[in-house]
Amino acid sequence: MPTIRALILSTIFLHLLLPHQQNSPPLASAAGGKWNLLHSNTGVSAMHMQLLNTDRVVIFDRTDFGPSNISLPDNHCRNNPRDLTLQIDCTAHSVEYDVASNSVRPLAVFTNVWCSSGAAMADGGLLQTGGFNDGERNARAFKPCNDNSCDWLEFDTVLRQPRWYATNHILPDGRQIIIGGRGQFNYEFFPRRRGADSSYDLPFLSETNDPIIENNLYPFVFLNVDGNLFIFANNRAILFDYVNGLVVKTYPMIPGGDPRSYPSSGSAVLLPLSNLQGGGDVIVEVLVCGGAPKGSFASANNGNFVRALNTCGRIRITDPNPQWVIETMPLARVMSDMVLLPNGNVLIINGASMGTSGWELGRNPVLTPVIYKPNNAIASRFETQKPSSIPRMYHSTAILIHDGRVLVSGSNAHAYYNFTGVLYPTELTMESFSPDYLDSKVAHLRPKIVAPTSHAQIRYGQRLDINFIVRGRINKNSIIVTMVSPPFTTHSFSMNQRLLILTNGNETSASSLLPFGGFKYQVRVTMPGSAILAPPGYYLLFVVYRDIPSEGIWIQIN
Fold first, then answer.
1. Phi and psi angles of residue 411, each rounded to the nearest 5 degrees, phi first
2. How confident is the model over 485-506, as pLDDT tens digits?
């Protein structure tokens, strides 16, 4: 697969993912988790985050609010006459966070990346598109490195249309599709094919646009196993054949009809995909949670903050006659993030219980995360976790990292950085949330992958033997392997988030007792058979035993 540049100009840990095996109940306890403050000042509020295969995280905000809290290196300054606030700016508006050293370094982004979108490409680089003002038709690339030499590369006016509040999805051929954005009821592809690609109308986006309020920005987009795209905007969804520009299926409106898209910002995930080689149909389900009732945005602008939605809608998008099933969350929530955990559960985190997205429009922060267990009975899927002490409101983000923790950062409900005299000050802190599977009480059950090594290159359909160690004997029926794509996260949606369960009935074998008392095991899995199931790129691979994942290792499928 070509690199971004070509397109646009010995013990390592594996994680096995366990979605609630029937023969062994999960050991992780409810109402748990642990919070740690990692950084009191990252310099930049994390409006956007992307984990890279170097275990570093690219973070960026907008560029037109004035100075940030971290200087550019070597007395460098950005001189941009088109900046709306500060034309000569010696501070950084993007940083790279190194998970291993818990450190940040400033990066130089030139034009405005406010409310933009992106995806990690097949070669592991980040390709980001759009923004505001001078950045609305630009693309930017970040090729990861380990020596601190890498920085943003910018490509001017390469998009067909301005893209502000758009959604990107990586496609099976390695390109990105860019859908929507403010005032844009269309889509385009990037990188473009020479002389071919234009922008193409998508009437569904104009049909779901509420006048003035919109309620269809940052649409929720997922690649279905038939190669079509599931697109949810406002309160409804379609299955879209992007190759031929055809709506294949129109789904029922979500019950109640309340909006779930920006600025009424709910969140959504594609639930874990399994049975990938089982000979039957792959069941594909989407979960949409939270949001704000109709009229909430206008009410909030008038000082009346309406209670957020406390419901989730779950739909099996591959059914011949798909219907929404509504579930009730323990807490109402708007502006939340939904993170797929290595064991197949979903972490619902961040947000507020009143109001909507927008400057100063949210109230009552929801400090308590919730874990959703999709394979439990419908009345027992939600478990509340220990609360944070830091409000994470508008422009906050959360992402999974390789050791199973979730990084949580950002929150800025103001047009500028504002640390005093406001309800919810601009947040430059970074925390980690550790689910109960990282508790020391279950450390003896945590798998440790010893082969393959990280960054192994894997082929579609390849049979892969994974060697791992557990301190004691295990129930081999309670082992699964999963692979998780690193998403681009902003505005309550993680673009390209995808988890595949690779083990379904494959044999697990054990070998002799090791000197320290542990046992070595091997599990054989078959990789996804096509780029439709798993678009090309880097994934974190996990071994999970009874809901307890190993650390993840990176694999590249191509």
1. 120, 105
2. 999 999 999 999 999 999 654 5
Which whole-number Å values give the CA distances from 254 to 179, 250, 375, 442, 473, in the listed order? Answer: 21, 12, 21, 40, 46
C-alpha distances in Å from residue 398, one per residue of 247, 336, 467: 32, 9, 30
- The length of the chain in residues reads 558
CB 185 within 8 A of CB 202: yes
* Helix H or strand E segment including 4: helix 4-8
The SS3 of residue 24 is coil
Q: Is 203 helix (H, G, I), strand (E, B) or coil?
A: helix
| Domain boundaries, given as residue ranges, for the chain | 35-438, 443-557
Contact at 8 Å (CB) between 105 and 128? Answer: no
Report the 10 Å Cβ neighbour count for 518. 16
In the prediction, which pLDDT does 197 show?
A: 78
Cα distance between residue 335 and residue 398, in whole Å: 12
- CATH code given to domain 443-557: 2.60.40.10
Residue 25: the pLDDT is: 36
- 229: tokens are 């795209």
Instruction: Report the alpha-carbon distance of residue 194 to residue 187 in Å, rounded.
Output: 17
Complete edge-to-edge strand list for the sheet that includes strand 396-400 = 34-39, 430-434, 406-410, 396-400
pLDDT at 29: 41
| Exposure class string for 207-233: b at 16+ Cβ within 10 A, else e | ebbbeebbbbbbbbbbbbbeebbbbbb
DSSP letter string over 409-449?
EE---SSS---SSSSS-----EEEEE-GGG-GGGGGG--EE
Nearest to 14 by CA among 507, 456, 430: 456
Cα 517 to Cα 496: distance, rounded to the nearest angstrom: 40
Q: Which residues contact 164 (CB under 8 A, 6 or more apart)?
A: 114, 115, 116, 130, 131, 132, 136, 181, 182
**Closest residue by Cα to residue 27 from 550, 405, 544, 547:** 547
Chain segment 271-280, per-residue pLDDT in tens: 999 987 755 6
Asked if 132 contacts 112 with a C-beta cutoff of 8 angstroms, the reply is yes
pLDDT at 30: 52
Residue 309 in this model has a pLDDT that exceeds 90: yes
Q: Is 406 left (phi over 0), alpha (psi -120 to 50) or beta?
A: beta
546 within 8 A of 18, measured Cβ to Cβ: yes
Specify the CATH architecture of the domain 35-438: 7 Propeller (2.130)
501 and 19 in contact (C-beta within 8 Å)? yes
Question: In the beta sheet, which residues pair with residue 432?
Answer: 36, 407
| 194-225 confidence digits (pLDDT tens) | 766 799 999 999 999 999 999 999 999 999 99
Average pLDDT of the residues in 18-39: 60
Place of tokens 């900046």: 83
